[in-house]
Amino acid sequence: MIDPLFRRLGVNGPWVSALGLGTVKIGRNQGVKYPAGFNLPGDREVVRLLSLARELGVNLLDTAPAYGASLERLGRLLPGPRQDWVIVSKTGEWFADGRSRFDFSYQGTLRGVEESLRLLRRDYLDAVLIHSDGDDTRILRHEGVTDALEHLKQQGKIRAHGLSGKTAEGGLLALERLDLVMVTCNLGYHEESPVMARAAERGKGVLIKKALDSGHAAVAGAEPSLRHVYAQPGVSSIIVGTINPDHLRENVRIARQILEEEDPPS
User: Fold this and answer.
1) Where do the domains of the chain lie, and which CATH numbers do they carry?
2) Which of 52, 57, 194, 242 has the most neighbouring CB atoms within 10 Å?
């Protein structure tokens, strides 16, 4: 019997926990849109958090070059066999010295993914998403990043490719060629719902960001938020970024409760 906490990342993708752990907070605390400031956790705290995630059944990690030291720290500190983890990274945006830079070129994409592989100490990535600067359609139509990701997929260096976009138009366009999308969905934002519906029709993977409105929905409000998102079509996993073990434990409990109600154990 498949654990109800797990869903396919698209028809042909890996089984992933329906609640994934976002790792921006282990690598970056500058220029982020959270309701309160925070200090980056130490290495032992990161190991404890990742070990707890593994213990709770979370196998999906979301990272990015734009997340500061996140890639490097995951590469050093990830517990357990690396093949037990499904890692989704990104390309197109890098963060250093307090500011972001963007590069969606073919060669820039190849270099960026190779650097991510080096930092994560892996031979391949489960998925790489285009980290949009907001101009989704221009990136997809006029930059070299999509061709580069397809080349990397053919080489076996990535298993899947997709778009972490900011518009419904971009998400729909991405589904014509890419394997998955990451979209925003929460109780107050529904503009990308057509993307989820189209992805469900085509058997593409759907990752959800900002389901808790970047931390503005308190843990007390997590249940209605998560329940709303899981009710949408095609959702593979909700990415929730936290460095608080209690929040992680509670969010997994809520997710499991909701999913077991949908698919009670026999």
Assistant:
1) 6-90+167-262 (3.20.20.100)
2) 242
- pLDDT class for 123, splitting at 50, 70, 90? very high
Residues 48-73 pLDDT 10s: 999 999 999 999 999 999 999 999 99
Per-residue tokens: 74: 């995951």
Compute the chain's Rg from CA coordinates.
17
Cβ-contact 160, 121 below 8 angstroms: no
Categorise residue 89: left if φ over 0, alpha if ψ from -120 to 50, beta otherwise.
beta
pLDDT at 215 over 90: no
Sign of the alpha-carbon torsion through 24, 75, 64, 10:
negative
Residue 92 phi, psi dihedral angles, 5° rounding: 115, -30
Distance of CA 184 to CAs 117, 137, 228, Å?
Answer: 26, 17, 13
| Residue 7: strand pairing partners | 16
Q: Global pTM?
A: 0.94
Q: Region 146-162: what's the mean pLDDT? A: 98
**Token pair in block for residue 137:** 């359609």
Interior/surface letters 161-192, b for 16+ CB within 10 angstroms, e for the rest: bbbbbbbbebbbbbbeebbbbbbbbbeeeeeb
Q: Which percentage of the chain shows pLDDT scores above 70? A: 96
Report phi then psi at 245, rounded to 5.
-55, -40
